Amino acid sequence: MGAILSRIHVIAPGFLTTVQDLGRFGYAHFGISASGAADALALRAGNLLVGNAENAPALEMTLTGGEFAFESAAVIALTGSDFASSVAMWQPVEIRPGETVRSGPARNGARCYLSVRGGLDVPLAMGSASAHVMTGVGGRPLRTGDVLPIGDRAVRRPRKPALGAPAHNGMACLRTTAGPQARWFGDELDLLYGAEYRVSEESNRMGICLQGPALLSPGGHMITEGVSLGAVQAPPDGQPIVLFVEHQTTGGYPKPANVISADFWRLGQLRPRDQVRFERVTMEGALALLRDQEEWLYSL
């Protein structure tokens, strides 16, 4: 932890507000996935807007925001889904000493990020400040009365407002490449790409459970193997599960597809009852989409 510039007081934490950065890597053999921001694109953008390194710890608010009081002047940015808020989104905002920032329910999407210039100066666990909610590694959801130190690790000047920010409208097209067991499904795979699914209320940071036409694997059971973020699993009941940021590190369900990296942010903004459909893309197409996204990010 470095020098502390000021502190944020949690007046009301919201439904599920945690400290997140881009996650911890290299611990899958201990059964701990990377975790990190559910919408890493919004987190990275927020940090760039206030002049931080992309990986600086920030607050991730889920479905409804919180209320936070600032001891001293600060520069913040709210990014991600469109939350009812006391400050404008997708741009650096100057906060006065003693000012309180309030965020209400999400108008669309699921998660909003509060980044503060200098970053949150919180302890690291396995090299990351991210709270892994399912295991408790790295911290817990915020509670009323918590106090968060603000660090002094800004690396550049605040940026201009973000133009063309991605938005979620309740219907997500998830683009995918072929999964390791795609050939098992034969013509059944056409069902995945021709149907619409609905996000189940059982979804969490571990996996996004979908409801719709059953995608049954003709291959039967398989030996457990490593799994990755965005993998689309087909369990015995045929209702697809998209592995999310706190996914298990191994699994025994066949995986016909994998959501591309450029659409990971869409996974982070899905909320219960949202509609989802899948679209096939080539590996070359996936790389082109990721390149376009990175070019937008670095235009900030």
Characterization of this structure:
The structure is a single chain. With 300 residues, the protein is of the alpha+beta class. Helix content is 14%, strand content 28%. It is built from five helices and 19 strands. It has helices at residues 40-50, 182-185, 189-194, 264-268, 283-297, and strands at residues 6-12, 18-20, 58-62, 67-70, 74-80, 83-85, 93-95, 100-106, 111-116, 147-150, 171-178, 197-199, 207-211, 225-226, 231-233, 241-243, 250-251, 257-259, 275-280. The strands form four sheets. It has a seven-stranded mixed β-barrel. It has a five-stranded antiparallel sheet with strand order 6-8-4-1-10, with no helix packed on it. A five-stranded antiparallel sheet has the order 2-3-9-5-7, covered by helices on one side. Strand 15 (231-233) and strand 16 form a beta hairpin. The longest helix is centred in the last third of the chain and has 15 residues, at 283-297. The model has no long low-confidence stretch (mean pLDDT 93).
